[in-house]
Every structure is written in C-alpha cells, then in structure tokens.
Amino acid sequence: MVSGRGSNLQALIDKMPEMPYEISLVISDNTRAFALQRAQAAGIQTRVIEPKGKSKTAFEQELVDCLRTAGVEIVILAGFMRLLGEEFLRQAPGPVINIHPALLPAFPGLHAQAQALNYGVKVAGCTVHFVDAGMDSGPIIAQQAVPVLENDDAESLSARILEQEHQLLPTALRLIAFGRVVLEGKKVRVLKE
Ligand code: GRF
C-alpha cells in the first residue's frame, strides 16, 4: 500500500526476480501517487481507494475486501501515509509491515529524518516493523544504521537513509517469506538460515 513517490515499491519490484515474493496488487489512497505509475509500468494490478467521503471504518473495510479478493498474504506499507485502525489489523489477510526512516522507537511519525537531525543524533537509519495500532510502534523486524554527517540537511540525510531502506525492506520481506521471522510477544526473533 502506497501514498506517494513509491521508491520503496520500485526497490521491491526491481528485486522481485531474485526474491521469494510476488507483488500481486498495489493499493493507493491517492490517485496522484507516482507509485501507481511504477506499478503499472511493471504490469502490476493497481487500485485507488480514497478515504474522501467515507468513514474510517468504511474506508478500511474497502481496503480489507480488496486485499482479500486479490489473495494477498502479506501487506506492505511502503510509504502509506495513514494510521490503520485495530479493525483493519484484525481483518487484514496476513501480517502488515511498515518501513520507517528512523531507528525506532526514536522519531516515530512524520519528518523522522528532520526530527533526528534537529535532535542532533550522530547515527540515524531505518526500521522495518510489524504494524500495530500505534504510530510506528510495532515489533521491530530489522534495522539499518547510517551515519549523520556534519553538513547534513534533511534532504541529504533522507537520501542516505533511503538508499538503505531500498535494501532493508526487500531483505526483511525475504526473511518473512522464508519463515525466519518469529514474533514472540513484542520481540521478533530472526532464525538463522
Ligand atoms: C520512506 O522514507 C518510508 O520510510 C516512509 O515513507 C517514505 C516513502 O518513500 N514510510 P517512497 O514512497 O517509498 O519513495
């Protein structure tokens, strides 16, 4: 599920031939998301489901129905800019995972890279995690650190983090597909190959 640029989606698409997953459907809550064009160019089915004029419950029910109809087994939030409710998570046809451009639990929410920069951290990074009903608060599956450099601005730091996001998300998905990700309460155990 996407809302915008779709560079993480593109990374998933590009790595698909060598990976144990298939992207069967891309859903956007935003008609103008460039991610939709990326999906179409790759021959992947797309759907736009807009929240406008619907209750949150109705909107999320439509998402669930669409995912179920497509036979989806895992839901990836790749720049999907909405907080999903408990009902969606209960009904989703599999685990829901998200990629966030910070080393959680630090800097959840919007503009995570700028938050990190303004705080003055020396190491930033990205996190792939299971989604729960909180804001970027679900169990952590994988993280990758990147250095914060002296002259960084939000743009340069975001670019450095994004490069790692494009590696981390497909890698995490691969681990999940091979059954190597085990959720134990709030903790995730990654089994050795
Ligand atoms: C990424 O930084 C991701 O971590 C965050 O939203 C951004 C989406 O970028 N959740 P893109 O649409 O994948 O290019």
Structure description:
A four-stranded mixed beta sheet has the order 3-4-5-6. Strands 1-2 form a two-stranded parallel sheet. The model has no long low-confidence stretch (mean pLDDT 98). The protein has helices at 7-15, 34-41, 56-69, 86-91, 112-119, 154-177, and strands at 26-28, 46-48, 75-77, 96-100, 123-130, 140-147, 181-184, 187-190. 36% of the residues lie in helices and 20% in strands. By secondary structure, it is of the alpha/beta class. Bound molecules: 5-O-phosphono-beta-D-ribofuranosylamine. The site of 5-O-phosphono-beta-D-ribofuranosylamine has 13 residues, from helix 1, strand 4 and helix 6.
Give the oligomeric state of the chains in this entry, treating copies of one chain as homo and distinct chains as hetero. single chain
Low-confidence stretches: none
Q: Major sheet: order of its strands?
A: 3-4-5-6
Number of strands: 8
Radius of gyration over alpha carbons?
Answer: 16 Å
How are the SSEs placed, and which strands pair?
Layout: H1 7-15, E1 26-28, H2 34-41, E2 46-48, H3 56-69, E3 75-77, H4 86-91, E4 96-100, H5 112-119, E5 123-130, E6 140-147, H6 154-177, E7 181-184, E8 187-190
Parallel strand pairs: 1-2, 3-4
Antiparallel strand pairs: 4-5, 5-6, 7-8
Helix pairs in contact: 1-6
Bound molecules: 5-O-phosphono-beta-D-ribofuranosylamine.
